[in-house]
Structure formats: structure tokens, C-alpha cells
Amino acid sequence: MLAIGDSAPDFEGVDQNGRHVTLAELSKESGVVLYFYPKDFTPVCTAQACTFRDAHAELAAQGIQVVGVSADDTSSHAKFAEKHRVPYTLLSDPDKKIQKAYEARQILGLLPKRVTYVIDKNGLIAGVFKAELNASKHVDGVKDLVRKLG
After folding, report:
1. What is the pLDDT of residues 105-125, one digit of tens each?
2. Residue 97 above 80 pLDDT?
3. Residue 117 maps to a domain
4. Rounded to an integer, what distance in angstroms lies between the CA atom of residue 147 and that of residue 142?
5. Taking all residues of the chain, what is their mean pLDDT, rounded to a whole number?
6. Residue 147, number of CB atoms within 10 A of its CB
7. Does residue 98 sit within a domain?
8. Which distant-in-sequence residues (6+ apart) come within 8 Å of 140 by Cβ?
9. To bridge 116 with a disulfide, which of 35, 64, 65, 92 should be the other Cys (CB 3.0-4.6 Å)?
10. CATH code where residue 131 lies
11. pLDDT confidence tier of residue 149, bands split at 50, 70 and 90
12. Is residue 3 part of a domain?
């Protein structure tokens, strides 16, 4: 697992709107919360996305962008974002390159681990949060860390 202080691997992906996104572009403007989740429209994943949605304004006010990553395609992400009013980027990672770079793959590489990274403006990992079945631990941990770093 990547650790606090490590350089965050750059990544490239396509979001729910068909826009190409890289960490290098995102971190020019702000810190980044990069969270991995198994699948759109599943109960814990939906709770996690909605919890980040509800914290979005608070995090944005502190200069943090949220990015969710799963292997779902952009069409699924677009439907998911619309249904749950997700205002942030959802990246499609069908080849699991981003999951691999962030060591976020479960046994046999079938689904990503539920792990969240906080990446500062310098591209360094400032926090790592893991909890497979408790989505709120990710958001609560991120908010606490961002307040401390603030």
C-alpha cells in the first residue's frame, strides 16, 4: 500500500462526461481526494458516493477536489452521477491501471479495495483511509485530515 509522504502516481482516465482527467492537471489547482470503490449502484458504494457528495461543498471550499474511481464504464458513471446528484468526477478504470498504480486491487484483482487517498498540491499522499464496509469512515477521515492540514 502507498503510504503517507509517498509521491502519488499520476493517472489518466475518462470521467462520466467524456473528459480526459489526469492527476497532474487536478493537482495544479488543488488537493485531491481519490477514492476507489467496487461498483456503481451497489449499497455501500452508493452510500460512499453520497457521503462524499454531501461533503463536496465543504471540501471544495478548502481547495479539495473529489475523484471516485471504479472499473464501471463512463455510461454507468453518468447514470449513477445523475441519479445520485454526484457533483464531482467519477473516473472509469476498465483496464484497472489506476487501481494497480494505487495498490487498490483486492485478491485476484477482481474488484478494487475501498480505499481513499488524500493527495496534496505537491502530489504527495497526505492521508490513506481503508474500510471495506463503512463508507462514512472515509469521508470523516478526509474531513478531519483536511481541517488539520488547513
Report:
1. 776 656 678 899 999 989 999
2. yes
3. yes
4. 9
5. 90
6. 10
7. yes
8. none
9. 35
10. 3.40.30.10
11. confident
12. no
Q: Which domain holds residue 66?
A: 12-149
Give the end-to-end CA distance of the chain in Å, rounded to a whole number.
25
**What's the pLDDT band for 147 if we cut at 50, 70, 90?**
confident
CA 20 to chain centre: 15
* Number of domains the chain contains: 1
Sign of CA dihedral 7, 30, 15, 115: positive
- Non-local (6+) Cβ contacts of 32 within 8 A are 8, 23, 26, 64, 65, 66, 67, 118, 119
Residue 44 vs residues 31, 33, 47, 121, 142: alpha-carbon distances, Å: 25, 18, 5, 29, 17
**Band of pLDDT at residue 131, cut at 50, 70 and 90:** confident
- Confidence grade of residue 79 (pLDDT, cut at 50, 70, 90): very high
Residue 44 lies in a domain: yes
Cβ(31)–Cβ(121) below 8 Å: yes
The single residue of 8, 45, 55, 67 carrying the catalytic annotation is: 45
Q: Answer yes or no: 45 catalytic.
A: yes
